[in-house]
């Protein structure tokens, strides 16, 4: 394993270990636990149990509500006389109720007659509510339990603790931790022991599965239960467990609060509290049918966090990209799926926040590291190529550095060499003013470089007064030959503009600058060339050498722009290259045709063919043609070639037309 991979492995391992430690620490922090409890609320409300399904019928429990209609029908102030509750107990027994729970605390005596009537109606099928309250002072904490009056207990009634414990956010989620809870005693009174959970045994601290929002349970009004034969269908209460308590028909908003009303998992979605009598019904069903859930312990959560962190580390080991984001989201989705399955299938709440956070803790810093490194690479690419490539090409490389293959690759390129004519003479004339010579050369090389960059070329290097450039690397350029020739024409135009500027500045003393341009197309090797410590992005190949030779031969051919045959073939349909000469160069065998272009505008094929035929005649010593070409640029070029060929064929000197202009 190389050094880079070892370092990446160490960084990934550090992130994984950090994620495990942080997430396990957070799992014991109360605010974090409350956030996990919110996830429980969401899962609990996704698919609440159907009472018809769990009870095999219409449900075992019916709520007898002390509600607004009952207050209106009975017409008495609260608290109602206890002999009225005695009448209710008798009516419920007559209707076939198998157990009765009074979610009311009868701790203080009322009238003797009413108390005696209630005591006479009580029995082992009735459960009375007890209450516990914790009184805290700066010096002590005291738990006070409020029990029903002794005569009611002696009458045979059961007593169940109706108090519940709220989480830190005042939401009821936990089963009572008392073995003699109201729900447990009610199940005993009904003769029902839970098949999966014995009433009150081993459920302390488990999570309540809510049955639904307020008024989920079948509910009858208190006054209806006093006379079931008149107000209820026959057999409506037969075999039921009746729980009596206050339950207003108008649900109480959570923000206002209310006596004996509690926030549950459904409150976040409904905004309403659930009456205490329905809370007791929910706890009873949780006990009876084994619906409560266990909150996963720290060992299980720790295992989930460790597995999630390790999987995230494996995903982050390779450089970050869009796939890393996809892998992270997939891991989180998997964690949520496992948590949901554990909730509904195993009845274990495995909070997904800590494992999901572990994924984020691992992926975020590693992805940030990769993004930082990628941006640094982009800046390096921008710096490395900003002086050689057109800005648009630099931007493309920065967006996708993979388009730059380092180390060398074979490509078909078009190479351009441009050199200042008579530079030695110019330098000698300014030998006492080297600064002025430098300024002049820089002033010339600037527009020449711009001509290359504006047409997508890459400047390989400056060799004194010479520019070497190429096209079709590092980025693809299907029209590389056309762009190179257009750059060559732009160079010649830029020199003319600079000469005019110098003439305007210096008058007749201004130097007259000229350049020669050689362009060739061929297969080369392009990439980083040099040593292990210092290299340049450059090209090698015979096509490069030939382009350099063409630049030198342009002076001999008396044309400023000279193209190899391969380049001419590439641009034939676009620019119309013209035959100039057939030359042999040092290091190459045979004679090759060379071409030039006089304008970026294409020529008519017939005109070009006639010109090439005329030049062929000059090259073989057949003499010039008599007719002109009807284009000044072609006439001028033909005159230059004719004058040049007159020196090669002395017998034709008298037949050659005078050149239209001197070669630059």
From TrEMBL:
<feature type="transmembrane region" description="Helical">
    <location>
        <begin position="349"/>
        <end position="368"/>
    </location>
</feature>
<feature type="transmembrane region" description="Helical">
    <location>
        <begin position="12"/>
        <end position="29"/>
    </location>
</feature>
<protein>
    <submittedName>
        <fullName>Adenylate/guanylate cyclase domain-containing protein</fullName>
    </submittedName>
</protein>
<feature type="transmembrane region" description="Helical">
    <location>
        <begin position="293"/>
        <end position="315"/>
    </location>
</feature>
<dbReference type="Pfam" id="PF00211">
    <property type="entry name" value="Guanylate_cyc"/>
</dbReference>
<keyword id="KW-0812">Transmembrane</keyword>
<dbReference type="InterPro" id="IPR050697">
    <property type="entry name" value="Adenylyl/Guanylyl_Cyclase_3/4"/>
</dbReference>
<dbReference type="InterPro" id="IPR029787">
    <property type="entry name" value="Nucleotide_cyclase"/>
</dbReference>
<dbReference type="Pfam" id="PF05226">
    <property type="entry name" value="CHASE2"/>
</dbReference>
<dbReference type="InterPro" id="IPR007890">
    <property type="entry name" value="CHASE2"/>
</dbReference>
<dbReference type="InterPro" id="IPR001054">
    <property type="entry name" value="A/G_cyclase"/>
</dbReference>
<feature type="transmembrane region" description="Helical">
    <location>
        <begin position="322"/>
        <end position="343"/>
    </location>
</feature>
<keyword id="KW-1133">Transmembrane helix</keyword>
<keyword id="KW-0472">Membrane</keyword>
<feature type="domain" description="Guanylate cyclase">
    <location>
        <begin position="414"/>
        <end position="551"/>
    </location>
</feature>
């Amino acid at each position: 394993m190389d050094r880079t991979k070892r370092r990446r492995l160490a960084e990934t391992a550090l992130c994984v270990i950090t994620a495990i430690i942080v997430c396990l620490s957070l799992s014991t922090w109360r605010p974090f636990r409350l956030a996990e409890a919110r996830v429980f609320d969401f899962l609990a409300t996704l698919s609440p149990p159907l009472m018809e399904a769990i009870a095999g019928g219409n449900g075992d429990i019916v709520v007898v509500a002390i509600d607004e209609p009952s207050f209106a029908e009975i017409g008495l102030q609260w608290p109602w006389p206890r002999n009225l509750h005695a009448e209710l107990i008798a009516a419920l027994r007559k209707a076939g109720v198998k157990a009765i729970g009074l979610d009311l605390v009868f701790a203080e005596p009322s009238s003797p007659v009413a108390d005696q009537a209630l005591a006479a109606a009580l029995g082992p099928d009735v459960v009375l509510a007890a209450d516990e309250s914790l009184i805290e002072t700066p010096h002590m904490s005291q738990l006070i339990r409020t029990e029903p009056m002794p005569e009611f207990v002696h009458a045979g009634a059961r007593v169940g603790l109706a108090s519940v414990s709220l989480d830190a956010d005042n939401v009821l989620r936990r089963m009572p931790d008392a073995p003699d809870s109201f729900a447990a005693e009610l199940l005993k009174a009904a003769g029902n022991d839970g098949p999966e959970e014995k009433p009150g045994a081993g459920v302390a601290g488990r999570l309540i599965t809510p049955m639904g929002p307020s008024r989920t349970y079948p509910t009858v009004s208190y006054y209806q239960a006093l006379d079931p034969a008149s107000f209820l269908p026959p057999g409506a209460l037969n075999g039921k467990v009746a729980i009596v308590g206050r339950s207003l028909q108008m649900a109480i908003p959570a923000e206002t609060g209310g006596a004996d009303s509690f926030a549950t998992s459904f409150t976040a979605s409904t905004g309403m509290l659930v009456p205490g009598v329905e809370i007791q019904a929910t706890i009873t069903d949780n006990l009876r049918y084994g619906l409560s859930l266990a909150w996963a312990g720290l060992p299980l959560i720790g295992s989930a966090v460790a597995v999630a962190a390790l999987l995230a580390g494996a995903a982050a080991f390779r450089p970050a990209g869009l796939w890393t984001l996809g892998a992270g989201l997939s891991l989180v989705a998997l964690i949520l799926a496992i948590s949901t399955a554990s909730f509904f299938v195993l009845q274990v709440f495995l909070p997904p926040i800590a494992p999901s956070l572990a994924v984020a803790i691992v992926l975020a810093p590693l992805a940030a590291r990769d993004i930082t490194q990628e941006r640094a690479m982009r800046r390096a690419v921008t710096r490395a190529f900003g002086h050689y490539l057109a800005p648009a090409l630099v931007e493309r490389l920065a967006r996708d550095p993979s388009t730059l293959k380092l180390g060398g690759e074979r490509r078909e390129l078009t190479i351009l060499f441009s050199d200042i004519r008579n530079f030695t003479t110019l330098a000698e004339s300014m030998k006492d003013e080297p600064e002025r010579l430098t300024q002049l050369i820089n002033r010339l090389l600037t527009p020449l470089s711009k001509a290359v960059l504006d047409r997508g070329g890459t400047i390989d290097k400056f060799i004194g007064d010479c520019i070497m450039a190429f096209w079709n690397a590092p980025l693809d350029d299907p029209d590389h030959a056309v762009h190179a020739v257009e750059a060559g024409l732009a160079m010649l135009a830029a020199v003319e503009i600079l000469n005019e500027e110098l003439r305007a500045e210096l008058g007749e003393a201004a130097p007259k600058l000229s350049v020669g341009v050689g362009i060739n197309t061929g297969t080369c090797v392009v990439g980083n060339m040099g040593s292990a410590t210092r290299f340049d992005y450059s090209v090698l190949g015979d096509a490069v050498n030939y382009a350099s030779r063409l630049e030198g031969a342009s002076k001999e051919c008396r044309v400023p722009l000279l193209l190899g045959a391969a380049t001419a073939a590439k641009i034939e349909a676009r620019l119309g290259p013209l035959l100039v000469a057939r030359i042999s160069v040092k290091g190459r065998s045979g004679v090759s045709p060379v071409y030039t272009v006089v304008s970026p505008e294409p020529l008519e094929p017939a005109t070009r063919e006639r010109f090439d035929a005329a030049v062929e005649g000059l090259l073989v010593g057949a003499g010039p043609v008599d007719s002109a070409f009807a284009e000044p640029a072609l006439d001028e070029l033909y005159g230059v070639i004719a004058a040049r060929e007159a020196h090669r064929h002395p017998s034709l000197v008298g037949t050659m037309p005078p050149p239209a202009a001197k070669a630059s």
